[in-house]
Fold this sequence. Notes:
The structure holds two protein chains of two kinds. By secondary structure, chain A is mainly alpha-helical. In chain A, 57% of the residues lie in helices and 6% in strands. Chain A has a single domain (2-61), classed as 434 Repressor (Amino-terminal Domain) (Orthogonal Bundle). Chain A has a two-stranded antiparallel sheet with strand order 1-2. In chain A, α2 packs across α3. Chain A is globular, with a radius of gyration of 12 Å. The two termini of chain A are 17 Å apart. Chain B is an all-alpha fold. Chain B is 86% helix and 0% strand. Chain B has helices at 5-22, 31-60, 62-73, 75-105, 110-137. Chain B starts with a helix and ends with a helix. The chains are: A mainly alpha, B mainly alpha. The A-B interface holds A 20-21, 24-26, 28-29, 32, 38, 40-41, 43-44 and B 70-71, 73-77.
Amino acid sequence: xxxxxxxxRRQRGxxxxxxxxxxxxxxxxxxxxxxxxxxxxILLAFKIALFFDMTIEEIFIYEEEKPC
Amino acid sequence: xxxxxxxxxxxLIIGVGCIxxxxxxxxxxxxxxxxxxxxxxxxxxxxxxxNLIMKHMERKNPALEKQSLIDFNDERNISxxxxxKAEAGDITQWLIMGIAYITIxxxxxxxxxxxxxxxxxxxxxxxxxxxxxxxxxx
Lengths: 68, 138
């Protein structure tokens, strides 16, 4: 799953630390989300969407896995 | 798990109590009990002191306490912890079986081998019980 978290955060001029504090997660979690190494739970995805006043689909882009 | 300060104070008292009690087991037959009590006591004391120092530092610095709470409840950290515990458990089960074979190779008493095999079986039964429990819950 891809996401536009870093792009949206930068547009709003918010630091990773500030976003982490607002969402009550660690800064490393924000970094991992932005790098696409970690997919959030549905609860965290909702929290992120609510924080940016956007929908989950506007931030997270679902991509079907290609069969090998 | 994050515990309250009082929990570590109780652990510290139990640790000191264990070491104190060990002095009553000083004859040849009960010496292993004294050794075990000293080991348990030292472990409890060490763990309690480290955690009490951490709690003291957190109390002095509320920002540190908040960060520590956030890190503990962070969903990615929880996921990492659970994954690490599960993998460590998986590795441990094979180590237990390895120990069982070693006890056979060194001709250890039968009860030792049986005890190790029982631990291996208990591990699997707990696993099956938890799978069934979580299937009902989720």
